[in-house]
Amino acid sequence: MINWLRERPEIRYFGILPKADSWLASLWWLVLATRGLLPALFAVAMGSLVGAVNDGDDLTLPLTMVGSVFVLLQVLSPIHLVLSANLGSRTAAWLYDELTLACLSPPGMAHLENPRHINDLTMARDFDLGISGPPLSISMDFIASGLVEFIGGLSSAIVLFFFAWWAPLLLGGAWLSTHWLLRESGVWKDRNTDQVQSAQRQADYAYRIAVDPPAAKELRLFGLSDWIVARFQGSRQLLHDLRWEATRLRERSVALSMVVVILANVVVFMAMANAAMDGEIGLDQMVTFAAAAFSTSMIAFGGLSWALDGAAAPAGSVLRLREQMAPTARLAQGERSGLGMPHQSVAFEQVTFSYPGFTTPVLKNFSLNIPAGSSLAIVGSNGAGKTTLAKLLCRLYDPTEGGIRIDGTPLVGLELSSWRRQVAAVFQDFIRFELTLRENVAPLGAPDSDIVASLVAAGAADFTGLDTVLAKAYRGGVDLSGGQWQRIALARALCAVRQGARLVLLDEPTAQLDVRGEMEIFDRILDATREVTTILISHRFSTVRRADRICVLEAGRVIELGSHEQLMASGGRYRTMFDLQAARFAGPKAGEAVDGLD
Ligand SMILES: Nc1ncnc2c1ncn2[C@@H]1O[C@H](COP(=O)(O)OP(=O)(O)OP(=O)(O)O)[C@@H](O)[C@H]1O
Ligand SMILES: [Mg+2]
Predict the structure, then answer these.
(1) How far is the C-alpha of 565 from the C-alpha of 581, rounded, in Å?
(2) 342 cis-preceded (ω within 30 degrees of 0)
(3) Nearest to residue 551, comparing CAs of 341, 345, 370?
(4) Ligand 2: distance of its center to the CA of 391 in Å?
(5) Which of 197, 249, 397, 487 is most exposed, with minimal Cβ within 10 Å?
(6) How far apart are CA 257 and CA 260, in angstroms?
């Protein structure tokens, strides 16, 4: 029972409040409890006032009581409103912090791709934007009012014990039963079905596409604005309809509730009238009990279940993500420091790898030895597994079978953060920080001389000043072209090499550069990374020829390996593709792609 209670989303939600702000939460509960007791106190005070008037007693005390309760009833409500709004905002902030930690703290990244988590993530990510329910700063006041009424009803019912033991049970039970009879309307039980979650995701996606700048070009060019708006409205309408159908008040339940409540009230008020007529209770008691019986109705189903469900559901998603994401992306790690590695070799040994949740392997028994200090180019068609190799080296995932050894030590035996400090990578979808140029090149800081030297090596020295923000939305900020951004990303990797990184992974680092720029930049990269191990991934054969060795990858296997000269001499796939691309660069024919294996 205790465990069941503890697992209830509503109880878990209340457990969050003191974590968000313990003082505010205590004050919120204190005011709530006081407000909850006021209706019962008011009934008692009114009874004693009427009694005093009836008996001709001194009215000072009863009047003071009635007055105090009345003033508290008026004053506490706006104070509680402010407390609720603040506590709601802080709880939302706490939940957002938890969500950010749930996403960012696991060392791997499988948790962000797991379909089981994606649904929770959709619900959790925007829970306070008011799309699926009111933000917490507002719903906390609904919850407060609902709880005040509930406690007010209960405390009034307790007063009725002094009339007859069965009266609070009958009346309280009748009003309480409305929660059960109307429970479907309060709690959206089916909010986690596939249909609801997919509608939520589609609404979320359409919304993002509509408001995020990157999609703006194509949306306009292809005239998709109305289509996106229609999709957004359609998904929201579907969500609304599903919610309405699941939580609308049902006629039968409403009728049954009314019958139960009317019967209980008739019985209690008739008994009260009889007792008064028989002289068993005086006028003062009559007033108190009648007021208490009246206030017991506050127990009834109101906005509480609905508001609590709306707040507890997304909060539950955040807590679930926090608990479940970490194990999904947990990576084993050893004690041995990876500092200074590799100084001998990086070796893939019979590596087989499938992405979590997929059974088809992307890499199959992949073996490759890369001597430290050398450069290796990996070429292969789209989907061959090139980026996957880079991700495995960064230990964003671990091989399903086989393993990677660095200087003979299994990669999983190295202490993770020290290894990651040895790796500098530019991925195809590299990050573009809306920060200054300096921070883009060295997010964790580096001497300006290293930053400038890296920018020079990447051909990005004359773009803008180090303190300029690389986003036009900021004061004095600038927008860069795709190729310029790529050079900045390269400078980031080269700067990491200057700070001690020993393995450089460049995944299509020049895909957005013009041909002349690409040749020149490859030469500069190879010069700047001469002392370290460099892995270049590229589609363009002409640019990788200067690498010490070239590996042709197909469907997760090495099909050719050697220097440019060796591979050209062997006349295999590399030769065919190299000649094809060289011919196209010499004079592209209509309808032919200019670069790439595909
Ligand atoms: N996160 C992922 N989850 C599941 N499958 C993935 C994931 N990333 C890649 N894949 C699959 O793994 C295969 C290899 O992908 P990878 O990105 O390594 O190819 P690539 O050689 O880098 O291709 P490209 O030249 O297009 O960049 C592809 O079939 C792709 O669909
Ligand atoms: Mg790739």
Answers:
(1) 16
(2) yes
(3) 370
(4) 10
(5) 249
(6) 5
Ligand closest to the CA atom of residue 362: 1
Q: Which atom of ligand 1 is nearest the CA belonging to 508?
A: 27
What is the distance in A from the centroid of ligand 1 to the CA of 31? 56
Element (H, E) at 503: strand 503-507
> Residue 513 and residue 489: Cα distance in Å, rounded?
12
pLDDT for 589: 46
Q: What is the full DSSP assignment across 348-392?
A: EEEEEE--TT--S-SEEEEEEEEETT-EEEEEE-TTSSHHHHHHH
Domains delineated in the chain: 2-163+298-328 (no CATH), 334-422+533-587 (3.40.50.300)
The ligand with the least distance to the CA atom of 364 is 1
Residue-wise pLDDT for 82-114, tens only, equals 999 999 999 999 999 999 999 998 888 888 887
Q: Which residues line ligand 1 (CB under 6 A)?
A: 113, 355, 358, 362, 380, 382-388, 428
Q: Which two tokens stand for residue 385?
A: 């597994």
Which of 352, 387, 541 gets mutated to test ligand 1 (max ligand atoms within 8 A of its CB)? 387
Which pLDDT does position 598 carry in this prediction? 40
* The predicted structure's pLDDT at residue 586: 61
Can you give the pLDDT at residue 591?
Answer: 41
What are the residues whose beta carbons fall under 8 Å from the beta carbon of 220, sequence distance 6 or more?
none
Instruction: Report how far ligand 1's centroid is from the alpha carbon of 489 (Å).
Output: 21
Ligand 1 mutation target, pool 388, 426, 541, 598, most atoms within 8 A of CB: 388
Structure-block tokens of residue 318 = 């955040």
Asked if 562 and 548 count as a contact pair (C-beta separation under 8 A), the reply is no
pLDDT reported for residue 183: 80
Q: How far is the CA of 392 from the centre of ligand 1 (A)?
A: 12
pLDDT at 133: 73
Ligand 2 centre and the CA of 378: distance in Å? 11
Ligand 1 atom index nearest CA of 553: 21
Question: Residue 157's pLDDT is what?
Answer: 92
- pLDDT tens for each residue of 363-391: 999 999 999 999 999 998 889 999 999 99
**Which ligand is nearest to the Cα of residue 382, counting in written order?**
1
* Ligand 1 centroid from CA 389, angstroms: 10
- In this predicted structure, what is the pLDDT of residue 597? 41
| Cα torsion through 525, 531, 533, 536, rounded to 10 | 10
Nearest CA-CA partner of 389 in 368, 414, 374: 368
Q: Which residues of the chain fall short of a pLDDT of 50?
A: 588-598
Task: Give the whole-angstrom CA distance, residue 596 versus residue 17.
Answer: 56
Indicate which residue's Cα is closest to atom 7 of ligand 1: 355
Distance 550 CA to ligand 1 centre (A): 20
Distance CA 318, CA 296 (A): 36
Confidence (pTM): 0.79
Q: Ligand 1 pocket check: which of 117, 360, 362, 392 to mutate, most ligand atoms within 8 Å of Cβ? A: 362
Q: Whose CA is nearest to atom 3 of ligand 1?
A: 355
> Which class for 53: exposed (0-12), middle (13-18), buried (19 or more C-beta within 10 A)?
middle
Residue 81: per-residue pLDDT: 95
Cα separation, 565 vs 569, in Å, equals 6
